[in-house]
Specification:
Elements (H helix, E strand, L loop, with lengths): L1 E2 L4 E4 L4 H10 L6 H10 L5 E4 L5 E2 H10 L4 E6 L5 H12 L3 H11 L10 E6 L4 H24 L4 H17 L6 H13 L22 H6 L22 H8 L8 E4 L5 E4 L2 H12 L1
Antiparallel strand pairs: 1-4, 2-3, 5-6, 7-8
Helix pairs in contact: 1-2, 5-6, 7-8, 7-10, 8-10
């Protein structure tokens, strides 16, 4: 009897019986008898197992289960990166299809953007597009719920998504972690006054993550990300965000600033008055 599997399998920690049950739950053709046989063959490897894509005999499958190990690859999602670009990079690193990754993300993710926690993930070579998206979403969802529990003592998805969206603008705009609460204060002050945010970073969504924002782009972009055209924050996060950005969205600094612009040192000059802001712009562009 032949047995065909996907290239890599995930084997949980635990007893041989637990592992066999897990494989059965994932539609692998094994039985309780195999738990008995594995006691003679050897304990199954735990974690990601590289089985291969060719058809195996049942004995070969059980043997590989106890001896094979998948090669792992570190894939890093930096704070402020968009899902589109991250999946493009991951496709190259793990030899996956970018379009299929995007399709799986749209199918599985509860959010249009911002569903991943920036981190370095150790992922197995040979994993499928469907499996890697499910894995990253599961880990990220767990981490975000932990963050929310620490900050609020509970997790409210709608409330959390609002802060994710706000945090994503802060993430794109701030020049450093230290600046984030101050940028958050400018956003909050402008929202309180009914002013448009008018922030370039909000237009660095999706495939435009690293594209310089021009007056033409501002005129032509009709999406809700265009905070020059529309009041309030965008409908969805601009990017994937870090915990410091989320904290800055929830706990912005208390200031009267309404404007900021990047100076020649790569930091931002903050001000309450438009006239001072214009002087700062002229000084930086001389």
């Amino acid at each position: 009897m032949g047995l065909t599997t996907s290239k890599v399998l995930y084997v949980p920690q635990g007893s041989i019986t637990k592992i066999i049950t897990h494989l059965q739950d994932n539609n692998i053709d094994v039985s309780p008898l195999d738990a008995f046989l594995m006691r003679f063959i050897g304990m199954p490897q735990q974690g990601w197992i590289n089985i291969g894509t060719t058809e195996l005999t049942h004995a070969d499958f059980l043997n590989r289960l106890s001896t094979a190990k998948a090669a792992m690859k570190n894939v890093t999602l930096i704070p402020g990166e968009t899902t589109y670009i991250f999946l493009e990079q991951m496709a190259k690193q793990l030899d996956l299809d970018h379009k299929t990754l995007l399709k799986e993300f749209k199918k599985q993710s509860p959010y249009k953007e911002g569903a991943f926690v920036p981190d370095t993930y150790k992922l197995p070579r040979g994993i499928t597009e469907e499996a890697v998206i499910a894995l990253l979403l599961k880990r990220s969802d767990k981490k975000m719920k932990e963050w929310s529990q620490k900050i609020f003592g509970t997790y409210n998805e709608a409330k959390w998504y609002k802060y994710l969206t706000l945090a994503s603008v802060i993430q794109k705009e701030a020049a450093s972690v230290e600046e984030m609460p101050t940028v958050g204060s400018v956003i909050q002050n402008r929202l309180n006054k009914g002013m448009k945010l008018q922030m370039d970073g909000a237009l660095n969504y999706g495939k435009y993550s690293h594209i310089k924002i021009t007056p033409k782009r501002i005129r032509n972009d009709k999406t809700a990300y265009n905070t020059y055209k529309y009041k309030g924050i965008p409908d969805d996060p601009v990017c994937n965000v870090s915990l410091p950005a989320i904290r800055a969205a929830i706990f912005p600094a208390k200031t009267n600033y309404l404007y900021f612009m990047k100076n020649r040192q790569g930091k931002h000059d903050f001000t309450r008055y438009y006239s001072t802001h214009i002087r700062n712009v002229k000084r930086a562009t001389k």
